[in-house]
């Protein structure tokens, strides 16, 4: 099973942007990395009129699209409950690290991404699985490391050392 590490925070604080900046830094260290992103709304990666869309709309349970550069499997829940993070992890190909965006209540180690200007409360006081806070300003988080949000290499090194057990040479 790969190491699993999450990012939590309210919408608009920059979780996706930070993860996008971290992936090349982590993979450059030889860590094969995958991502699971939780969406809180109905989303669709398919477009009306496309063959795969038409197959799903016709009632297909799963549609797999494959080409010489990538493949994607779309699975319709059709009144089934949303799978848990643990269930989704079993569907990934082997890797070293899975970065999780969302699933903020999951029992995985995570960094809280926080911007005071967003006007939302900190999550770490209610979540013992938050092991650090990444913020755009200095703050006291009662013993938790506070990482500079605008320094992705420092955050990548924190993840590599704490989660993957790898330090920069």
TrEMBL record:
A Pfam family that the UniProt record links to this protein: MobB
InterPro entries: MGD_biosynthesis_adapter, MobB_dom, P-loop_NTPase
Residues covered by the Molybdopterin-guanine dinucleotide biosynthesis protein B (MobB) domain: 4-136
Listed name of the protein: Molybdopterin-guanine dinucleotide biosynthesis protein B
Organism: Limnobacter humi
Gene: mobB
């Amino acid at each position: 099973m790969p190491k699993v590490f999450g990012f939590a925070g309210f919408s608009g604080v920059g979780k996706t942007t930070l993860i996008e900046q971290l992936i090349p830094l982590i993979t450059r260290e030889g860590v094969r990395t995958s991502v699971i992103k939780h969406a809180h709304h109905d989303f669709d990666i398919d477009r009306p009129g496309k063959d795969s869309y038409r197959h799903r709309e016709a009632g297909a349970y799963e549609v797999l699209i494959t080409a010489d550069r990538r493949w994607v499997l779309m699975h319709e829940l059709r009144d089934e409950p949303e799978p848990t993070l643990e269930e989704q992890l079993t569907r990934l190909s082997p890797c070293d690290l899975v970065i999780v965006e969302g699933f903020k209540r999951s029992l995985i180690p995570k960094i809280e991404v926080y911007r005071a200007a967003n006007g939302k409360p900190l999550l770490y006081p209610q979540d013992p699985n938050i092991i650090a806070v990444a913020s755009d300003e200095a703050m006291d988080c009662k013993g938790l490391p506070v990482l500079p949000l605008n320094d992705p290499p420092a955050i990548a090194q924190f993840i590599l050392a704490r989660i993957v057990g790898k330090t920069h040479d």
